[in-house]
Amino acid sequence: RKEVEQDPGPFNVPEGATVAFNCTYSNSASQSFFWYRQDCRKEPKLLMSVYSSGNEDGRFTAQLNRASQYISLLIRDSKLSDSATYLCVVNMNTGFQKLVFGTGTRLLVSP
Amino acid sequence: DVKVTQSSRYLVKRTGEKVFLECVQDMDHENMFWYRQDPGLGLRLIYFSYDVKMKEKGDIPEGYSVSREKKERFSLILESASTNQTSMYLCASSLPPVLAGGPNKYNEQFFGPGTRLTVL
What we know:
The complex is a heterodimer of chains A (111) and B (120). Chain A has strands spanning 4-6, 11-14, 19-25, 32-38, 44-50, 54-57, 60-65, 70-75, 84-91, 99-101, 105-110. Chain A has 111 residues and is mainly beta. In chain A, strands 2, 4, 5, 9, 10 and 11 form a six-stranded mixed β-sheet that branches. In chain A, a hairpin with a 2-residue loop joins strand 6 (54-57) and strand 7. The N and C termini of chain A lie far apart (37 Å). Chain B has 120 residues and is mainly β. Chain B is built from no helices and eleven strands. Chain B has strands spanning 4-6, 10-13, 19-25, 31-38, 42-49, 56-57, 64-70, 73-78, 87-94, 110-111, 115-119. In chain B, the strands form two sheets. In chain B, strands 2, 4, 5, 6, 9, 10 and 11 form a seven-stranded mixed β-sheet that branches. In chain B, strands 1-3-8-7 form a four-stranded antiparallel β-sheet, with no helix packed on it. In chain B, a hairpin with a 6-residue loop joins strand 5 (42-49) and strand 6 (56-57). Chain B is globular and about 45 Å long. The interface between A and B is medium-sized, with 22 and 26 residues.
């Protein structure tokens, strides 16, 4: 089983739609979780951190379910500019800041 | 703004060549990382460093070495490039967890723009 798993997509949604991505992780001791955004041919950039049960930032909501070992990212009122790949990232709690990256979920928002 | 720069955006080398990829960050970060990113495999950690002259192997260190002589600079070295090292290489930096406000509050990793290396 992969340490961090995501549906690669692509998710094709119209502008204004609500879309959600899930990510599962294998290490139950993991404590810190992140969503990074990566635009085509660009570097990843932090979108949100998830430290407890969840986090909300404007149209974006990240939730953590420790019992089932998954985190989700919900995007409301999708914009064209939200088109990107969203990387689920988990800190494996190994005593150092080692992050494990999922392969990403691609989102395409169309007019 | 944190800035992480990498010496080249695109690089083409031949099999057997020695290749140097340079990364410089301007925010006085202790931690620096080298990843490679391949389709379907995501980002994989090659090496990291948490201080000058310190280095630790990541998940895929074979065929690579690193150098950190100065805090702001972290170099990735391919001793003898091979075709399976064709990839996107990303450098990142961050503050250590102790400065982030708690053991579980790991700081954001800031990435450079990447170097797309092709080995022929």
